[in-house]
Design goal:
- The chain is mainly α.
- It has two domains: about 200 residues, Chondroitin AC/alginate lyase (Glycosyltransferase, Alpha/alpha barrel), CATH 1.50.10; about 160 residues, Glycosyltransferase, CATH 1.50.10.100.
- Helix 3 packs across helix 4 and helix 4 packs antiparallel against helix 5.
- The longest helix is centred in the middle third of the chain and has 21 residues.
- It is globular, with a radius of gyration of 23 Å.
- The N terminus is likely disordered.
- Keywords: Lyase, Signal.
- It holds the Pfam family Alginate_lyase.
- One of its GO terms (molecular function) is lyase activity.
């Protein structure tokens, strides 16, 4: 009797079929091409993803922690700038509005107006849902987390949810934020907005990297790319041509550095490599040599009531510009003036102050959070091939380090 026909594939073909099935189920893990991120290191991300796929335990634990945060982020509401009545009119508008964080109601005035400045003391009202800064921060954090989770797992649920946030904020004509900051960092009773509010859209820099990760996903579309680039094109135009933008560009402290960082990243994101390279190329003479002394200190940041915070905050902007320079063939990491002013000198000076127990310029700053600046020193160790920069992280507690995946490096 003839036996029923069975199909037995040779082992290599079985293996090929399994790999193809895995690639179909996990598209983010199928390729070895580098992601087109701007600030996050494409090489570090790609290497970490390959290690995760190879079941490396260290990277696996970091990815597991990331996906746990992503599962929580999946529940975050999509909350773009709400429609509000236009000041002085009846038309509804989706203009971004925020409160200048160091301004408080005047206790001597019955209605608290005009607000008065208390430098270094953050008014919690600025982060309330009466204004948009909290919404912007939550959106950026959520999108970045979900995009990274998609990149490392290939789970399209993460990509779809991240895309929903980006579409609502920037792509959907019915809900998108107006691409200007005319009402950012308002001072009630004094004026409608302030040029210093421009620093708040530095929060959009990681969103650009997140979208670069999302673009190969099934959720993201060419229409999304076109509309998002249009939004950033309009916002760049406002930054470069508006009075607040020009004033912020002229700032001689972290506000000027972050202005340049935003323009460079947003330009490169939307494909204007020439503008990105121009801005990055001016960093040495326009920012480093005017803000960083030969000993690595930044006097304009040290004179603030929170010198450690502003020193690291400005250093972060410099590292963003260096990352853009790297994409454009410029080496800002190693740029130095004739008298030795450089980003590396600033890193060397700031490093010992990363830990909570090291006050800077006499200010203890007990509420200083080193977590956002961990990637700066991971990138420094990679760029300069010097593990001394990782030694600064050893002084941090394990809980702080666990909040930042090891594969995140500026």
């Amino acid at each position: 009797m003839r036996r029923p026909t069975t199909f037995i594939f040779p082992f290599p073909i079985c293996l090929l079929i399994c790999l193809l099935a895995l690639a179909t189920a996990r598209p983010a893990l199928a390729g070895t091409e580098l992601p087109e991120t701007i600030v996050l290191s494409p090489e570090v991300l790609n290497r970490a993803r390959q290690q995760a796929w190879a079941r490396d335990r260290t990277v696996g634990r970091a990815v597991a922690a990331l996906t746990a945060r992503a599962d929580s982020a999946m529940k975050a509401a999509v909350e773009p700038v709400p429609a509000r009545p236009e000041p002085g009119g009846n038309r509804m508008t989706r203009a971004y509005r925020s409160l200048s964080p160091y301004w408080w109601p005047d206790p001597q005035a019955k209605n608290g107006l005009p607000y008065v400045r208390r430098d270094g003391e953050r008014n919690p009202e600025a982060d309330s849902d009466r204004y948009d800064r909290g919404r912007l921060t939550r959106m950026a954090r959520t999108v970045r987390t979900l995009a990274l989770a998609w990149y490392f797992t290939g789970d399209e649920r993460y990509a779809a949810r991240a895309t929903a946030h980006v579409r609502a904020w920037f792509c959907d004509p019915a809900t998108r934020m107006i691409p200007d900051l005319d009402h950012a960092q308002m001072r009630p009773g004094l004026d409608q907005g302030n040029r210093t509010g421009i620093i708040e859209t530095a929060t959009l820099i990681p969103v650009c990297d997140a979208v670069r990760l999302l673009e190969p996903s099934q959720a993201w579309t060419r229409t999304d790319t076109r509309r998002l680039r249009e939004w950033f094109g309009q916002y760049l135009g406002w930054l470069l041509r508006s009075d607040p933008g020009r004033a912020e560009a002229a700032s001689l402290n972290n506000h000027g550095t972050w202005f340049d960082a935003q323009v460079a990243v947003f330009a490169l994101f939307r494909g204007d490599r020439e503008l990105a390279r121009e801005v990055a190329g001016l960093t040495g003479n326009r920012r480093i040599s005017t803000q960083i002394l030969p000993d690595g200190t930044m006097p304009r940041e040290l004179e603030r009531t929170r010198p450690r915070h502003y020193t690291f905050f400005n250093l972060e902007a410099f590292m963003v510009l260096a990352a853009v320079g790297e994409r454009c063939g410029l080496d800002l990491y190693r740029w130095a003036s004739a008298t030795g002013q450089s980003i590396r000198r600033a890193l060397d000076h700031a490093g010992p102050f990363l830990a909570q127990d090291r006050p800077m310029n006499g200010a203890s700053e007990p509420d200083f959070d080193p977590h956002p600046y961990v990637p700066l020193f991971r990138r420094a160790a990679l760029v300069y091939k010097d593990t001394r920069y990782l030694d600064y992280l050893d002084a941090l507690d394990a809980k702080t380090l666990a909040r930042q995946p090891s594969f995140i490096a500026y």
